[in-house]
Amino acid sequence: YSPHLDAEGLLSVLLGAFSSPESSLFWWSAEENEKLLQFWETYILIMETLEGNQIHVIKPVLPKLNSLYELAISGEEGCWLFHPSWHMCIYKRMFESENKSLTKEGVLHFLELYETKHLPNSLGFSEFVIGPLMDALSESSLYSRTPSQLIGACPPLGMRLRKFLATYLMLLPEEEKGGFLLKFIQKMTNRHWCAVPILFLSMALAYIPACKVLGTDGLHALRDVLQCTMITHQILLRGAAQCYLLQAAMHLTDVVRFCFCSVFFFLLYGKSNIKWIELEAFLNPLLDVLMKLGSNAYIPTLKTDKSLQLLLKLLQTRSLKCSNTQDGYLTKTKILPCFKTIVNLIQVGDLDRCDLYLALIPEIVNLCLQLSSKKLTIIKNFISPLTNASIHNFRETNSAEELKLKEQIKKVTSIASLTVVCELVDQKPEAHLEDLPSVGALRRFTAFFQSNEVLKKPSYIEEKSGIFFFCSLCEETSQGWGRIVARYVRDQWICLRFVLNKLPMLAQEYEEGTSELLLLTAERSKEILESALETLTILPSDQVLPVFDCMKILVPKLLNLQESLCIEAFDLAWKIISSLSNTQLVFWSNLKAFVRFIFDNEVLAAAVSAKGPAYAKIKEIILKLIDMSTTKTGVFNVVLSHCCQSWILPTCDNRSAMRNPFLNAGNYCELIIEGCVFGTVFRRDQSTNRDDHYVRICAIKFLCLLDGSNILHKSFMEDIVIKLLEKDELVSRSRTRYYANSLQHRIKNRVWQTLLVLLPKLEQNFLCGILDKVFQAGFGNNQASVKYLIEWIVILSLHKYPQFLNKFWDCFCYDEEKLKTSICTFLSVFSHFDTILQNTSEKKPILKKALLVVLQWCFNHNFSVRLYALVALKKIWGMCRMLDVEEFEALTPVIESSLQQVENMHGTGNAGRNWQRIQDHFFFATFHPLEDYSLETIFYTLPRLSEVAEDEWISLCKFERFTDIPLPPAFQRYRSRAELLDLKPSDWSQQDTGSSSVDTDGQTEWTDVQKKIIPWKHSTPSSDLEMVLQDRAAKLGKSNSRLIVVASLIDKPTNLGGLCRTSEIFGASALVVGSLHYVQDKQFQHLSVSAEQWLPLVEVKPSQLVDYLQQKKTEGYTAIGVEQTAKSYDLTEYCFPEKSLLLLGNEHEGIPANLIHHLDVCVEIPQQGIIRSLNVHVSGALLIWEYTRQQVIKHKQQK
């Protein structure tokens, strides 16, 4: 604007901007006057609303942004009529808000808007995305999940960001895509990003459709982002982000535009300048050294060891996949020949070097097995001499009277070499190494050498200048020597384990009954077990695994003869495990070995056969493990998974003599029962990251594998069912508080889930015997989820065996006192009566009986019982009409009129709404007992719909991830029907949060919205609507006007007391308050000065205001809100109707937007000052007086 420009010239400049609006921030045109006014009025309304900085006020206004864009874009020309910066100002204000909820709402709205509306391209948008939008996206709290989402699901912002970025990039011109993406990625490196935002931004990049728009700069920027991800401590988030970034690099980079070195540099994250070289050129120097190991005595030891270490690392990292011809050729021609010289170096006097050489042997075997079976001769050529030499050295050192340090270390290396051979024979059966004569000699040698042989502790001066020099002799002799001795003892037990596992084979070699074979029987077993107990007391805890494995073989053979010795083994093993519970590194491996020992099928069977202290000791250990699992997650997983697999899945263990391991399942069924109900409840202040679902999944999948035609399985299932019912009864009798999502509720829920899984496998006679217990459980006061499961079981039982209906009719014969808390459970069964009678030919007598039973409950004094009975009556009567039975004609008028009266129950408050709700409830409207019978429905969908805590939902993907036990292919169904799965939780019996016609969380565009005040946030009501009308004034003959003052939103007693006094003075007909408890408040009474005694008071809770307003409007009242809105009337210009209802807002938040929607009009008080609002009592008093003044004048005029 220039001061020398006259008005006409200024107008022409502004009008000229119309042809190119994006280059100007503001323009006006007389022809577009109406559209421009509408745009700016909406714009100013939105900006003024944002001043409140409260999401409850702003959210109802956000839909107006959509109309703002419609006005700003020319449909014909497809261009901006208003500069995009105006829109960006709105979003920038929301992004920079201190209220994170408002920031999140703004980000979600921006992303959704650009995704759904094809906005014209603008450079300003790209700058805004890379600038303010990405700054807002750096806030981790925006990526929270919604309550209905599963743990691990992508949050709404992550999903919307993914769609937005793909859509936005595809709409950009080709020449701008690369530049935008490069700036976007570089922005991710310009600030300290947290792990969560960087993860979802990386995901958005990875999901962009493949387009080759990035060059070398883009690849370098992605590498910088990869480096940024390394700062986070969350390993899983870091790994996921890096995977997404690598995927983005593959999809978005143009490989033609950069060299291979750039890719290599990218993969190294810039941390190394190693050039890419040919594999053969890299290996040649190493191979030259290796080939000379056996022939050149002058190669330095350090160079030899470094070469071997490099070769070992190379083989381990490559895993010898030989993915191409060159690798296979190099392996065959260069590497294998070197191994012939390595074997000769193993028998040395240095333990570290010995470990290095021995570590190469498994890699040699893997290499030979992978390349060709012809290479097995190479394995045998070095296994045989190694075994024979080790046995020879061991015997030679044992024959000496006093061993020097050199000979002792030679014994250690010899037993270490034999250990490697034993493990190779066990782990690589395809190599057929057990056929070697040297391996047979190894078995015979190991079977009879003395266990727990220890080494003499070296002195300070012994062998100091010999071949072996103990490097830490001067300072750490005792500690270092202790580790060597522990290793030596452990290796003995590894070799002994190898022999014990091969006992059947060894017995065949001594089939003539020699004395050696007798040593392998009871006496020798006892001796070894005693040595094992001694070993457990001296070995470090991380070395006891082979001892546990040996005890697993020995205990079953000795349990009947040496029970006390076996119990001592149990106690000592448990002592070791319990002492390791806080040591993560060695605890789990030891626990698994302990479980394999204690819960070995042979051990369990032997303990059962004796039924003595050993059996009791195992039961005690089970309880201890369960107790440990409550504080250390994963313990019970290991126990139950091992037992379930060993009991029901076939095994190739030749050692087991049990004909049917499943016998152990029946004897130790408490493990399965505990697994079915496993899981505890933690307080919110306890920080836990537990997932106990896999215990229950293991137990459930085990039960799913059972076959009802198998006698053992059948007996086991019946035992489980009886004990589960007893557990449910025990929990019901418990005096512990039973509330929603309590531990008692969860246990009962898990019990009935398990019973529902087993139900199809149960026989008729057994089911008939337990049905009374099921009905008895239904008589209890159960939580909703348990109630649905019991009803489902009853429905399925009656469907399969309709002859059980007589038992069902008996449930209605108890007195009303017993049925008052349970009758709804049995009435709910009638809602699926068509499913029950599906297999019945004679339906008429059953329907007649059902009608007689249900009709008597339709007149019950309890409203909920009447509703359930009417739903049942509607279902049964529909079935009767389909059959067209003449016997029912006499009942037709009564039933039809009753049902018609219920259907027309509209506008009567909660009654009509609850009738509609119970019919729409999932259990009556969508759920089908047969078609919805699936694991997903039982363990995920039904708990979710019945509002069980989210940590109780077990999704189907968890069943699929747990692969230790497979599900049977013939299992009926796995997934819920889509109709049921898509439903949201909605229990009709819970109180409503508002009118069903108002979507407070949706993006409904209100016709009138609050401009400045935070709306009152209504809460869930706790009881049905109760009207408490005090008619003291009417009894005294006092005349009242027809003005109702509604102050339910006011929560300060002083304001309510003042309003009560004002309303009484000016003759209001009633004052509506949120709670009558305010009347007892001293501050209220101080201001009201006994006005509450002369004024009718009505209690209407804030959550019930919608219904109250609707009711009063039907009575002819005009609902008037005292609020400043976009369409409010000036108080001086408004004429009050005689029947007026005056709604006052909350002291701080005013009238919420959803209530404004239900008002007929809003009236505001004109003001001249700077402060924008009056005290609510003062505002109410002004309007009450204005109403009274107008009514007084009107009455005078009528006279």
TrEMBL record:
Keywords: Acetylation, Methyltransferase, RNA-binding, S-adenosyl-L-methionine, Transferase
Catalysed conversion reaction: guanosine(18) in tRNA + S-adenosyl-L-methionine = 2'-O-methylguanosine(18) in tRNA + S-adenosyl-L-homocysteine + H(+)
General function of this protein: S-adenosyl-L-methionine-dependent 2'-O-ribose methyltransferase that catalyzes the formation of 2'-O-methylguanosine at position 18 (Gm18) in a subset of tRNA. Selectively mediates Gm18 methylation of tRNAGln-TTG/CTG and tRNASer-TGA/GCT. Gm18 modification can enhance the stability of modified tRNAs.
Domain of life: Eukaryota
Domain tRNA/rRNA methyltransferase SpoU type: 1043-1184
E.C. designation(s): 2.1.1.34
BP GO terms, sorted: tRNA methylation
Database matches in PROSITE patterns: SAM_MT_TRMH_2
Keyword Transferase assigned: yes
Gene3D superfamilies reported in the protein's UniProt record: 3.40.1280.10
UniProt name for this protein: tRNA (guanosine(18)-2'-O)-methyltransferase TARBP1
A GO MF label: tRNA (guanine(18)-2'-O)-methyltransferase activity
Complex and partners: Monomer and homodimer.
Entry-linked CDD domains: SpoU-like_TRM3-like
Similarity-based family: Belongs to the class IV-like SAM-binding methyltransferase superfamily. RNA methyltransferase TrmH family.
